[in-house]
Amino acid sequence: MLRLLFSLPAFALALLLACGASAEPMATVGTCTLTGTVDAGSSAYLQDCVATAQAHGYDALLVRLDTPGGALEATRDIVRAFLGADVPVLVWVGPAGARAGSAGVFVTLASHVAGMAPGTNIGAAHPVLGPGGQDPEEAGGKAMAEKVVNDTAAFAESIARQRGRNADWAIAAVRESESITAEKAVELHVVDLVAPTEEAFLRAVDGRTVNLPSGERTLRTADAHRVAIEPSVRQQFVHWLSNPSIAYLLFVFGGLCLAIELAHPGMIVPGLIGGVCMVLALVAFSALPVEAGAVALLLVGIGLIVAEMFVTSGLLGLAGAALLVLGGVLLVDRFDTGWFVEPTFALSLKMLIPTVVVVAGAALFVMTRAAQARRAPQRGGDAGLVGERGRALDGVGPQGGEVFVHGERWRAISAQPIAPGATVVVRKVDGLTVTVEEQH
């Protein structure tokens, strides 16, 4: 009996250890977000997300997507990373109101499992080029149209076939600009399911089997621990610059600051700020599809606003503001085949007009005040004494005397005798001697 009593704790401990050893550890899912344009910054970020998820042995990588499209080369880099990933890549288009437009179609198709939130859409992958969103055939001719469309359609078809998705729809999205809702996308087997939240999406895909380069893997994502993978500061900065609105604001503001510095040398601060803004704007332009003519219009508009400060006719200022708006409207080059975006990827008038009014108004105010200061009479130095009033400290005459002017004692002469204590006005400064007259 004693032997049995002593053996019970050991048996209980062995049972607990066995249960603990048999329990599976909690699954971990890395999460990242793609919002805005697909550019060099966001592409590098998503590639890093795949590498991080593989290096840490995460059970899956979840990408939340909402994009109007972006650079074609950056899109290809993301697709290559997804297709070659040895970790399940899950793409969820959400929340409600989000879209996987243009380049976003390829990113979604390249995932192992894709889901969409209700109220989202996917498609509009037809290349829209040329001013005003022209068709490729209208913008660059029939040969150019066939080349661009065929290449893009083949790209979409190859991704869809590799992931077992609807290749016919992928081709239609390119050739016919097909765009569908989340529910229709599930029906056509473009995506796998509709889920209102990320949590619901992870629960819905739990237990599915996906094919990886290393073999099949069963997803364990229900109630998984999620780890956010954040972009680096450099990636965030590049992505921030790859925004037409930011590039436009930097260029206009920097140009006006430089104009103020050139018109009134020595202010230093406007020149320094303008130089930094212009450099950042040029970096942003190099990462965006930009019309050279639109940049020229912006420069002319800035020049007209500066000229208005010297002519003050009103017409030059209005013409300059109009050119800033026109340059902003035409800034995005939709004929650049290196970018693949929806027609909405452009500067809107709702942003342009208030921006031009505020920036141009601020520039007019600053430059007007500077011009007024330049035209004002000199208040410092010897020349600043002319016209100043003072008081005679003793008798002042042709032989001399002393006066108190501008807080200082000065030797003074006068053509007419001036009694001590009389009010005097400085008429001339000659070295350390002032010529004064009595103020009656």
What does this structure look like?
With 440 residues, the protein is α/β, with parallel strands linked by helices. It folds into three domains: 211 residues, 2-enoyl-CoA Hydratase, Chain A, domain 1; 133 residues; 57 residues, Nucleic acid-binding proteins (OB fold (Dihydrolipoamide Acetyltransferase, E2P), Beta Barrel). The chain contains 15 helices and 18 strands. A six-stranded parallel beta sheet has the order 9-6-4-2-1-12, with helices on both faces. A five-stranded mixed β-barrel has the order 14-15-16-18-17. Helix 3 packs parallel to helix 4. The longest helix is centred in the C-terminal third of the chain and has 27 residues. The chain is elongated. The termini are far apart. About 4% of the residues have low confidence.
What secondary-structure arrangement, pairings included, does this model have?
Blueprint: H1 2-22, E1 28-35, H2 40-55, E2 60-66, E3 69-71, H3 72-83, E4 89-93, E5 99-101, H4 103-109, E6 113-116, E7 121-123, H5 136-140, H6 142-162, H7 167-175, E8 179-181, H8 182-187, E9 193-194, H9 198-205, E10 209-212, E11 215-218, E12 225-228, H10 233-241, H11 244-263, H12 269-286, H13 292-311, H14 315-329, E13 339-341, H15 349-375, E14 389-392, E15 401-405, E16 408-413, E17 423-430, E18 433-438
Parallel strand pairs: 1-2, 1-12, 2-4, 4-6, 5-7, 6-9, 16-18
Antiparallel strand pairs: 3-13, 7-8, 10-11, 14-15, 14-17, 15-16, 17-18
Helix pairs in contact: 2-3, 2-10, 3-4, 6-7, 11-12, 11-13, 11-15, 13-14, 13-15, 14-15
